[in-house]
Design a protein that fits this description.
alpha+beta, Alpha-Beta Plaits, 6 helices
Length: about 170
Amino acid sequence: MNRTDKAAIIEHLATKSQKAVIAAVADFKGMQVEEMIRLRGKLREAGGELVIVKNTLARIAFTDGKHDCIKDMFRENCAVALGYEDPVAIAKAFTDFARTSKKLVVKHGSLEGKVLSAAQLDALAKLPGRQELLAQTLGTMNAVPTNFVSLFANMIRSMLYALKAVEEKKAA
C-alpha cells in the first residue's frame, strides 16, 4: 500500500469518525467471514457500520477528532463500530453479537469524546433505545389527558346514577 492509498484511508476514516456519535472497538481475531458479514448487517440495521483498518492508520485518523480519547488504545486486531444515529442501538447490536460470538471481544469505546470501558458499553446496551424512550414519553404524555377525561366521566356517571335513583324513587 503506497502513501496516497494510506492518506485516502486515513481521510475517509477521519470523516466517518467525525460524523459518528459512538465508536466501539473490539478484537475480532479468529472470526469467520460469515460471522463478520452478520455483524456488519446487524450494525447496518442499527444505523452504523463496521470498519476494519490497520491500527497505525486508525490512530492517525482518530487524532484531533471527536473520538481522540481512544486513539492510543488500538492494539492487535481491532474492528471499529461507528454509530451515526442512536448510540444505544449500536452498543446493543455490538454487545449482543459479542455474547453470541466466541471470537468477538468488546474492548472499549468512545461516546461523544468520553472513553467507555467494555462494562460501560454493556451498561449502555441495556438502556432502552430511542424508539422505546419515545414510546414511553408518548405514553406518559397521553396518560394525563386520558386520566383527566376518565375522572370527569366517572363524576358525571355518579351524578347520573344518583339522578336515576331519585327518578325511580319518585316514580314508585
